[in-house]
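[agent] plan:
  1. take the single chain provided in the ticket
  2. run structure prediction with default settings
  3. attach structure tokens to the ticket
  4. add a short note for the reviewer (M.T.)
[agent] executing step 1
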Amino acid sequence: VMCHVFAGQSPSNYSFETRSVRLMGHPTSVRLEAKFWVILEQLADAQDMPMAKFLSALYEEASEIHGEVSNFASLLRCCCINFLDPSFDHQQLALEARDTRAKSETARAG
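[agent] step 2 finished; step 3 output follows
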């Protein structure tokens, strides 16, 4: 059996889960497979952010870079794939998280 490891996985991995989020002040919902939400939690943890703040920050940064985010769910899926890629720069992610924390602490102190 060639693909049993994939075909035999729990359907809960690929069942859809919809979460309500606020992006740039606007309430919306994002629908992803449950397994992607698990990976996004790891990403948010790596950035030392709650999920809601991570999603909002990602959306805002992508909007600044590209002008608009036409398919946020697809962007999130690609973030997960990149995060799991063996060539992904986890050190850069940690540096960005540290810089974000420092800016946040400076803003609170000032």
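[agent] step 4 note for reviewer: The longest strand covers residues 16-23.
[agent] ticket updated
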